[in-house]
Amino acid sequence: MKTISAVEITQTVARLSIQANTHLPPDIVAALDRTRRDEPWPLARETLGLLWDNLELAEEKSLPICQDTGMACVFVELGQDVHIEGNFEQAVHEGVRQGYGEGYLRKSIVGDPLRRVNTEDNTPAAITLRLVPGDGCRITVAPKGFGSENMSRLGMLKPADGVEGVKNFVVETVRLAGSNPCPPIVLGVGIGGSFDKVAYLAKHALLRPIDQPNPDPFYADLERDLLRAINALGVGPQGFGGQTTCLGLSIETAPTHVAGLPVAVNVSCHVTRRATATL
Amino acid sequence: MQYRLTTPVTREDLAPLRAGDTVLLSGTVYTARDAAHKRMMELLDAGQPLPFPVEGSAVYYVGPTPERPGQVIGSAGPTTSGRMDAYSPRLLDLGQRIMIGKGKRNQAVKDAVVRNGAVYLAALGGAGALMAASVKELEVLCWEDLGCEAVRRLEVEDFPLTVILDAHGGDLYESGPAAYLASLPEDISR
């Protein structure tokens, strides 16, 4: 049995929190680079150029790419043969506390949704733990801004709505969101499961690099169709109009009930952040 | 068109601006998000003065990241303006002329923009490092307990902005996508 100390987890979460907020993943950088060259509409092209300049400035001045350094969504795939020495959840929260402090990141969490007092250290993290075979521990920190999070939607469709119903729901979500989520956006789409599971699928889909299609060709085709339909809306970068509304879209699915067709769309922006380490 | 403006501004300064124009703004800009707006409304209700001179002012909806030692400001892009819709018309009627944020506004705000010869300008959402580069000076004016939502006075130079709502009823979030779609060949746009 392998032993991992709580201190090691804390240090890793702290480091990943800072890394994710200052460096975009390579697939998102590549998509921004490609679209700033391909975009034909002048104001849109200029806007994508400025978003690119922002990435360079953030790097040069060690500033967060976006001031909304997000809710710290932490995904852990923990091997079932691992023994954690110390308190696992506390170790993750402590990592967020240290990373957001040392990295001069914004503290955006209120301790209660209605009383709304800031916790001052961006804790607690939103932890999703999955037990997997083996003795590894894979940690991903995916800070999520709420300008885009607030535009997310969940629908309990009827089975008869079928694939067309799902398409309409996803495209309508982007149309309703318009300029609010800081387009160009990235979408995580969950289909199937239950009310709670489908939201998790949508969130988890945002962890998949956007240059990796769904391994099932049926869903890879659906991802392509949806991306085309969304970019035909003309919303464009920042909602100013143009071809580049969505950089990429990932679908995750799960078995569901005979009577239901849940669908969830988790909206993310051009600052779709994730940083991963394996202990 | 690109315009250079310096705050405070008048109705006449803003009259030439049209949705889709770009603005390089210099001068004083005040920051406030929803929590600060709520407190400003309470001050007005109590007949108290606002924390800054409202006539001709520009208010930026932003909650920056903490500045590192030696930095003027941290990352400082706009937050979603719709959360200020409930408060903006009252401030516009009192003389605020420029709102800076990102995202859609409601009809009451659009009407107040036209009524007062004001404008709503977009900063680049998600481009916090770029927006910060134009900020030359920062002072926390009040409500430090609100943290990143405290009211700050910023001195900005050539702050890069895009006109969304103009004083003549223009709205780039409607006209921009429509113009792009109209430019496409028929078989693609349908």
Descriptive overview:
The complex is a heterodimer of chains A (about 280) and B (about 190). Chain A is an alpha/beta fold. Chain A contains eight helices and ten strands. In chain A, the strands form three sheets. Chain A has a four-stranded mixed beta sheet. The longest helix of chain A has 19 residues, at about 40-60. Chain A is globular, with a radius of gyration of 19 Å. Chain B is globular, with a radius of gyration of 17 Å. Chain B has helices at about 10-15, 35-45, 90-95, 105-115, 130, 170-180, 185-190; strands at about 1-5, 20-30, 60, 100, 120, 135-140, 150-165. The two termini of chain B are about 30 Å apart. The chains are: A alpha/beta (about 280), B alpha/beta (about 190). Chains A and B meet through α3 of A and α5 and α6 of B.
The CATH class of the largest domain in chain A is identified as Alpha Beta
Helix and strand content put the structural class of chain A at alpha/beta
Looking at the chains present, what oligomeric state does this protein adopt? Answer: heterodimer
Largest sheet of chain B: 5 strands, mixed, barrel
Which spans of chain B have pLDDT < 50 for at least 5 consecutive residues?
none
SSE string of chain B, helix = H, strand = E? EHEHEHEHEHEEHH
Rg of chain B, alpha carbons = 17 Å
Which whole number gives the mean pLDDT of chain B? 96
Which fold name corresponds to the CATH topology of chain B? fumarase
| CATH architecture title of chain B | Alpha-Beta Barrel
Tally of structural domains of chain B: 1
Number of helices of chain A: 8
- What structural category do the secondary elements of chain B indicate? alpha/beta
Q: Report Rg of chain A.
A: 19 Å
Whole-number count of domains of chain A = 2
